[in-house]
């Protein structure tokens, strides 16, 4: 048969050129070892039609086949992602659809709302099984490198709030507030008056209930609201894991809107994932295509250079920039560990298909951050044109505690 000769040649090429610790088990009982070592990953192919994903092994094709049950994969998530990437990079040419292309996405308020709800309104119980107890779904901060997840997330919130010099009585707008952890921390420990906005109904309901439970209704308001519909003036503004959903074309207007909401002497923190491609292209070998289809519809990542440019176009001046890429790789690894530890409950709660999507997504994110395909920057901004004598000094005021300054980028 044609497929037998093609498969035999494919396996021989992989074995000779890549020697991957991978074994392919076919529906007829045949086993193909692709190296002379014990396999770290086993791919089970139940039907001849699934061979196409191996012959063109982009991360999108492999991921889709796994998610849709056309293949089954045995191995640790990190090994699966590492070997999958080695198979893609050793087989495919990094050009065309497999390169770091920038997609053109048509956006609207309704499409943005639908995209947010697709990603976040899975169920609160689903996220509780692998996030920390405060439900913080963004990069943690590992000051010493050995913190557990809850401690690192609290340190991240303190890092943000100290960088923006949050004071008792300040008004704080948190754009994309998630399940409310940052505004609750800001109200409880810094005495701020907070407004948190989200497009996720699940998040809004959860955060509102938690605010009531904690007796913080006089300090915190949670709104189901688009950032474009916010009015008023705020002393401090935070955007954590939000601008990835805005769209590259909308970034100047996004930062202009933030500028319009910021008090004259206010401070903004933008904490977000960026592309490391100079042209703001997505992650390579079809990984970005997989994320767009299954995980983050309409997500777009700008290069940090483009982010800074659009901030300036929006009337904001960056006064402090910090790269937390290694911290996010560590965060994703810890999320993945908790996900694996609760795998049976996650399958029961969300179904096998969603379990498979998120399993490869979390491991893939850890890999992408470790490989410098994507990064994470915290950028502190003020209104452009402020008198220098009124600006905070980064080393003294933005970080506050000396241990936070010396703990920067401790993760190797």
Structure description:
The chain has 412 residues and is α/β, with parallel strands linked by helices. It contains 17 helices and eleven strands. The protein has helices at 2-17, 52-55, 59-67, 77-91, 109-120, 124-128, 149-163, 181-190, 201-213, 251-261, 287-294, 304-313, 325-341, 343-350, 352-370, 394-398, 402-406; strands at residues 22-26, 31-33, 41-45, 72-74, 171-175, 193-198, 220-224, 234-240, 262-275, 316-323, 374-383. The strands form two sheets. Strands 7-6-5-8-9-11-10 form a seven-stranded mixed beta sheet, sandwiched between helices. Strand 1 (22-26) and strand 2 (31-33) form a beta hairpin. The longest helix is centred in the C-terminal third of the chain and has 19 residues, at 352-370. It is elongated, with a radius of gyration of 23 Å. The model is unreliable at 400-412 (pLDDT under 50).
